[in-house]
């Protein structure tokens, strides 16, 4: 199992200490030194103030932040966790992703989802009710842009009459986030990975997703994913699944129990989960780095023997 950590902008207002180049560099380098396999940045370009002040969190632009990480690390994979794909024209996403893959020497993973914030959609001039159609269209265009010169495509809100996007990456993995059956069908059809989101019942209602709190909750979702993968004639081993240690408080919190994490991650691995995601506290850089080290020592190291 491989290990993803999300940069700790976990609240609003974010710690000013974490909103700096120095913090990003120190966090990314230390995560790499400690054996983490990837670092992620969330995507909220225009959240509502109400959301921010009622449990939301601040965010950096993931492409810019990951560019900084690419420049100061050698091994970490880089991914937005996750990019709300319908917010952007797919040609812009294809260009940014290919560029990050180039400057990181093949370390970028494009992790995408449909999002759930109506206000953010409105602020960006995108129709929330079109989000699923826009998402599927964007995936098709991005893949085509990475492989085709003089691309011709009639989109819902754009027309490509012979566009060529360079550079063309050898292969950027695409992971699809979300707990819905539609998300799993998208993964089975063509994507490289699935990212379900831990979602207690109250949060699930807010984000309009299926509740996901325990490993037992995940089992039927994974059963459905693997059935879809089999029906698509694909190899299950070619599909990554990334999920947090469900039901386990994260490192840096009073409820963190390494033994419980190890047991839960063992169960997840038996189900075919290949990546685990964790968060660390966002009160400041020192607390975040301390939690990174604790998790690496008590969870990553024992799992790797």
Name some characteristics of this structure.
11 helices; 305 residues; TIM Barrel; alpha/beta; five-stranded parallel sheet
Total strands: the figure is 11
Q: Please name the CATH architecture.
A: Alpha-Beta Barrel
Count of DSSP helices?
A: 11
Number of domains: 1
Low-confidence stretches: none
What is the CATH class designation?
Answer: Alpha Beta
Order of helices and strands: EHEHHEEHEHHEEEHEHHEHEH
Averaging pLDDT over every residue, what do you get? 96
Rg, please?
A: 19 Å
Q: Which sheet architecture does the biggest sheet show?
A: 5 strands, parallel
- Name the structural class: alpha/beta
> How much helical structure, as a percent, in the residues?
40-55%
Superfamily at the CATH H level? Luciferase-like domain
Distance between the termini: 12 Å
Report the β-strand fraction as a percent range: 5-15%
Spatial ordering of strands, largest sheet = 4-5-8-9-10
CATH fold-type name: TIM Barrel
Which word captures the global form?
globular
